[in-house]
């Protein structure tokens, strides 16, 4: 059941992510990022909000530099033939990847990396709670093994499925131009941590 839910969730996630750029112009993703920057500035302060923005832009730049799409600037300049080929390749790239759909994909990735950067601002604050949840799951699993209590496969499958749905739902929320307030963003790791701790607690252990 877990594999079926994981496969179905990933398939629906891929379809949804590919559909979003066709239904939303790039300006909508950029406008949402500007609104969330104002929300972060009101919630965290101007300093942390600028740190989130810089971190998100750096992450997006790293993704852009790792893109497999060839660039006209990557063509060598010492050979006129290769330079002409590189120039033509750049024109083809601009014609193919410069349409509204691919610009919307770029804006979607920018919004997603910005939200990941905002999520990272919460992780140091929530690190103790997440570690406590994980240790609690490990302790329950160890105690059950010492007491020779059988693990419950139904609860394991239920919590594992819930964790997968929360993870996929978080990815969908990160790429969708909807309003995500900072407290809601900070709640996502805690909810995922609760389900993951129960997955660990109900995982079978011998000895």
Low-pLDDT stretches are: none
- Residue-averaged pLDDT: 83
Helix- and strand-based class?
Answer: mainly alpha
H/E topology pattern: HHHHHHH
Total helices: the number is: 7
User: What's the main sheet like?
Assistant: none
Record field, number of beta strands? 0
Distance between the termini: 27 Å
Tell me about this structure.
- There is one protein chain.
- The protein has helices at residues 2-23, 26-44, 46-65, 80-97, 100-146, 153-175, 182-201.
- With 207 residues, it is an all-alpha fold.
- The protein has one domain.
- The longest helix is centred in the middle third of the chain and has 47 residues, at 100-146.
How is the secondary structure organized here?
Elements: H1 2-23, H2 26-44, H3 46-65, H4 80-97, H5 100-146, H6 153-175, H7 182-201
Helix pairs in contact: 1-5, 1-6, 2-3, 2-5, 3-5, 5-7, 6-7
What distinguishing features does this structure have?
207 residues; mainly alpha; 7 helices
Short synopsis of the structure:
The chain has 207 residues and is mainly alpha-helical. The protein has one domain (2-201).
């Amino acid at each position: 059941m877990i594999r079926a839910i994981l496969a179905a969730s990933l398939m629906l996630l891929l379809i949804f992510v590919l559909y979003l750029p066709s239904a939303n112009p790039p300006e909508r993703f950029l406008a949402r990022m500007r609104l969330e920057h104002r929300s972060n500035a009101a919630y965290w302060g101007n300093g942390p909000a600028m740190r989130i923005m810089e971190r998100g832009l750096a992450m997006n730049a790293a993704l852009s530099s790792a893109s497999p799409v060839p660039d006209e600037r990557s063509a060598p300049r010492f050979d006129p033939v290769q330079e002409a080929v590189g120039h033509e390749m750049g024109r083809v790239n601009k014609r193919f990847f410069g349409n509204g759909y691919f610009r919307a994909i770029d804006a979607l990735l920018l919004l997603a990396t910005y939200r990941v950067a905002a999520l990272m601002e919460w992780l140091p604050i929530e690190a103790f709670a997440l570690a406590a949840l994980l240790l609690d799951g490990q302790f329950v699993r160890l105690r059950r093994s010492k007491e020779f209590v059988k693990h419950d496969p139904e609860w394991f499958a239920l919590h594992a499925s819930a964790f997968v749905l929360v993870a996929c739902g978080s990815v969908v929320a990160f790429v969708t131009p909807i309003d995500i307030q900072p407290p809601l963003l900070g709640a996502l790791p805690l909810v995922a941590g609760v389900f993951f701790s129960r997955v660990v607690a109900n995982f079978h252990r011998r000895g």
